[in-house]
Structures are given as structure tokens and as C-alpha cells.
Amino acid sequence: MNRSNAILTLIVLALPLALIGALASGPVTIDLGSALASGWRGEGSDAVILWQLRMPRALLAMVVGAALGMGGAAMQGMLRNPLAEPALLGVSSGAALAAILLLYYGLAWQAGWLLPLLAIGGAFAAVACVWLLAGRGASASRLVLAGVAINAFLSALMALALNYAPSMFAMQEIVFWLLGSLANRGWDQLLLAFPFVAVGALLLFSGRNYLRALSLGEASAVSLGYGGRRYPLAILLGIAAAVGAAVAVAGTIGFIGLVVPHLVRPLVRQDPGRLLWASALAGALLLLLADILVLNFIGAQELRIGAVTAFIGAPFFFWLIVSARRAGTL
Amino acid sequence: MRNSTLVVSCHGLAVERRRERVIEGFSCRLQPGELTAVVGPNGAGKSSLLQALAGVLSPAAGRIDFGELDSAAIPVARRAQLCAYLPQAEVPAWSLAVRDFVALGLLPWGKRVDRQRRVAAALRQVDARGFSERPVTQLSGGELRRVQLARLLVGEAPFLVADEPTAALDIRHQLQLMQNFRRQADSGRTVVLALHDLALAARYCDRILLLERGRLRAEGVPADVLKPELIGEVYGISCELRWRDGVADFVPLDLL
Predict the structure, then answer these.
(1) Which of B51, B71, B94, B113 should we substitute to test contact with A (largest number of A Cβ atoms within 10 Å)?
(2) Which residues pair with B243 in a beta bridge?
(3) Is the pLDDT of residue A275 over 60?
């Protein structure tokens, strides 16, 4: 086995270990073994903490991380640009704006599923706007441009919403939501997000050969049989479903979609197709590890996971630039 | 697995780019075993014609037949198996290893082919086996062209289309590339190249199509098309063209 495959195997093996780590992390110490053994319907506070609080949160971290990693890989592949991330298409902003409006009017807590569902709707609406604005036969670059424009408009709307926030409380809630968090997420959110992420993953994987062909450029991709609107549409809908659902339940968690594909690209011989599942795995692991950090952080305020990923992501970029400078590849 | 030969014929072809006609009333017949050069001034429609042949642009009118079939009626995956296309500037997006890059030419074939054998054979044809593991982003211009040619050849398509493949290459690489295309034609493929170098076109090609503002101005064997008066008129220059043993000596003199 060569080094790349060994690292990929390590990532796969590290996932269950990190899961156990996440289950063991939290403000109270629980007897993990007996709580696990007591099963799903187990009595006692340890079992309840494990099965109702920690397990869904840890699984959600993996699902959200996988969605963001995969979405980033698809986005970079489609735009042939290593600096692309899913937020570029306005997916995150669309979801965020819908969520903000709900928080704004204090409707968020009417039902646990209302906010995520509307946020997913927001993500799809944003992508629909991008698609319509880009128009017929849009090239990848026109799609990005449309995405940037829609994104800018949604950001303006968000700024407006914050500006006229009805109360300090609503504003604080919105800001915290924008930072991204996995706190207090349960089975409801997991069950809501998972089908969307799964469908998104299927759509993205169905476009893996399109992403491969695109590494030669758009004209070559068409000549290889990957023309038409079918493929970009599948990728766009896949990103909207997966990333939209992730943002809907966990807020905007940055940098995973940008950094993870970078990290694993050398492990899959730069293949934009295999990069999809490798980024999903690495994204799941990275977000789970970040959440372990959050869970073990002791402070008066909850440490938001979006802040943690940004703190991992930004220095990583410093390192990326420095190493590229040294190797003379940038 | 090898596709048989393919006659490609255009009938009253028109191509549009940004709602403007760039090719109009174009008819021709491209034969297996023939190396055809498409020449003409910048903006004459060479690239658009090639993109239409490769299925990148759809005809606005007329049709392109692959054998007996209208190529528009052939499923895209099958069409991609029949016709391989190398655009003018193909910049690889990722630093794929050379052999992975070449394997992309097998995408229309799915999993039905022996990838390793095909890629090795294609790399051998362009004399690039020595650097099959190098990242494509670190190749010299000449090496990259050879690797792109391997990508073009790997699917063993009977119809090859390349847009100015010799551009930006040194003289040795130009000759090497043209000889390779000559061999492809000799082995029964239908090959069409857009070329700016008229001497190369005269030396290696069986036929020349001269385009002027989207229309076919002249076609035929090099000696019939490459006449100083005609070339001078189409390009707006004065030039000298002498033939010595089938090799054209082309000297552009001045602007008209």
C-alpha cells in the first residue's frame, strides 16, 4: 500500500475513534461503557445523556462535516479552482437568510424542524436564482459570477436584517447562529438533515466523471460527452441539498469546504472524482475533532464551532501559501 | 475494440457564436487516411468549424454526417468515442500525473477498457513513457503537447480534430507532432487540423481547406490551394510560394 492510501485508511480508522472521543466529551463525566451497553432505551442519566444528547450531536458533526467537505470538493472541481467553496454559490447565504428571518420574528422555537426546513428551502431558492441569472448554456465562470452576485445581494439582506433586529436578544441569536454551532442539536436535526445530505451526495457522485472531464476545460469536457445542462445542474442541486441541509441545522461553519479538499487532494492523485468521497470522510473527521475541542473547552461562553474551524482553517492557508512559495508552484 | 474508419461529411453547415454566423454554407468530405488542414486568417472561423466537428458547438443549420448517420442523432457518449478533440488552449486544472491525465481520454469508454494498457500504448506513441508519473503542471510546453496528443489518441477514435496543435512549439516539436498526425492518418484515421503554418500544412497534409470569413474559399491538394495570388488575397499580403520536390517554400513579403 502506498503512502496516500495508508493515510486514507487512517482517516477511515480514525473516524470511529473520534466518535468515541466525542461521546466521552462533555461537561459531565459519564460511564460510557455501561451507557452504551444499556442501549437506546436505557434508563438512567448516563444513558439519556449518551443517547439523547451526545450521540446525535456527534453523528450530526460527521454528517455536516461530510456535506461541507464534499460540497467544497464538488465546487472546486466544477469551477476548476482550488479557492472555490460552496458559499460562493450563495447556498449558505440563502439558508442563513431564511434562518435569520425566522429568528428575527422569533418563530424559530415554534417547532424544532421549522428553521432547518426553511433554511434548506432558502438554499434551494438561492441556487435557483443563480441558475436563472446565469441563463442558458452558462459556463462555469458565468455560474460563479451569478453566484457571487446573488451571494452579495443575500449578504446585503442579512446586513439589513441585522441592522433592524427587533431586539438585542434576536441580534445575539442571529450572530451566534451565523457562527455555526452543534450545541443542543438532537435526533430531530439529524433526521432532517441526513436525507438531504444523502441525496446531495448521490447527485454529486453521479457527476464525478463530469468533474473529471472538466479538469481538461469546458470545451474538452463537452467533446468527451459531458456537455449540456444536465451535469452542472446535478452538481448545483447536489451542493444545494448537502450544504444547504448542513447550514440549516448547524449554521454557517466556514473553512471545512475550502480546506478539506485541499488537504486530501494529494491523497487521491488529484482526481476530482475520488476527491468527493475522500473529502466527505476527511470533512466528517475534521468537524468531529473540532467538536471534541469545543466540548472540552472550558469557559463561561460556549465556544462556537465555526470559530474553531476558522482558527484551524486560516493558519492552514498560511502554511499552504508558504509551502507553495517554497516549492515554487504558486 | 478499435473503431473502424469514419467518413465525415458536412452539408451546408452553419455555425453561430453569440448569435453571429461564424461559419456559413460549409460543405466538405473528410476521408479516412487523409490528413486535412484547415487554414485561413485569424477570425476566419477555423476554431468554430473544428468545434462543430467535435460536437462542442451545435450546427445552426445544415448537418455533419458521421458515415451514414447525422452526428446530431448519435448519442453523445458514442459520438465522443468516434471523435476526439484537442482544443487550442487546453490548460489542465489540477496537477494530475501524466498517466492519469491521459486516461481522461478514456472517459467516453467507461470501465469497458483496459485503462493501463491503453494509456501505456498512447504514451509510447508520443514518446512520453519516461515521465508518466510527472505532474502535468510541471511539463514544458512541448512535453505537455505530447501528453495532450496521447490524451487525444488514447480512445482510439477514428476521427481526430486538433486546433492549432503546433502553436507555441519549437521547430523540432512541430515536426514531431506533424509526423505523428501523419502516422495517424496513414493508419486509417480521419484527421483534421487547424494550422497557421502553411509550410507545415503543405508538407504533411493531403488536403487543405482555406477559410475566409466563415466560408470555404478553396479546397484541394496543397499545390492547388497554396497559390501566391490566392493566399495573398485571402490574407491581405504579398508573398512568394515556391514548390521544390513537393515541399512548399513560403515567404511572406509585405502587407497589401
Answers:
(1) B94
(2) B248
(3) yes
**Average pLDDT over chain B, rounded to an integer:** 93
- Note whether A227 contacts B94, CB cutoff 8 Å: no
B83 lies in which domain range? 8-88+157-255
Length of chain A: 330
Binary contact (B54, A223; C-beta < 8 A): yes
Please, which pLDDT band fits residue A110 given cuts at 50, 70 and 90? low
CA dist A173 and B194 (Å) reads: 62
Of all residues in chain A, the one with the smallest CA distance to B53 is A223
- Distance between CA atoms of residues A212 and A259, nearest Å: 20
- What's the mean pLDDT in A216-232? 91
Q: Is residue B125 assigned to a domain?
A: no
CA nearest to A219 within chain B: B56
Please indicate whether, in this complex, the C-beta atoms of B137 and A329 are within 8 angstroms of each other: yes
**Considering the domain boundaries, does residue B216 fall inside one?**
yes
According to CATH, the superfamily of the domain at A3-327 is ABC transporter involved in vitamin B12 uptake, BtuC (1.10.3470.10)
- Which residues of chain A make contact with B93, given a CB cutoff of 8 A? 80-81, 214-217, 272
Mean of the pLDDT values across residues B107-111? 90
A209 at interface of B, judged by CB pairs closer than 8 A: yes
Closest CA to B102 of B124, B81, B72: B124
Task: State how far the alpha carbon of B193 is from the alpha carbons of A111, B102, B232, in Å.
Answer: 65, 20, 21
- Type of residue numbered A225: G
The pLDDT assigned to A4 comes to 82
The larger pLDDT score, comparing residue B115 to residue A181, is at B115
pLDDT given for residue A112 in this prediction: 67
Q: Tell me, what's the ipTM?
A: 0.93
Residue with more model confidence, B83 or A117: B83
Asked if residue B46 lies in contact with residue B213, where contact means CB atoms within 8 angstroms, the answer is: no
Considering only the beta carbons, identify the residue of A212, A217, A271 that sits closest to B107. Answer: A212
Q: How many domains does chain B have?
A: 1
Residue A263 to chain B, least CA–CA distance (Å)? 14
Chain-chain contact of A224 with B83 (C-beta, under 8 angstroms): no
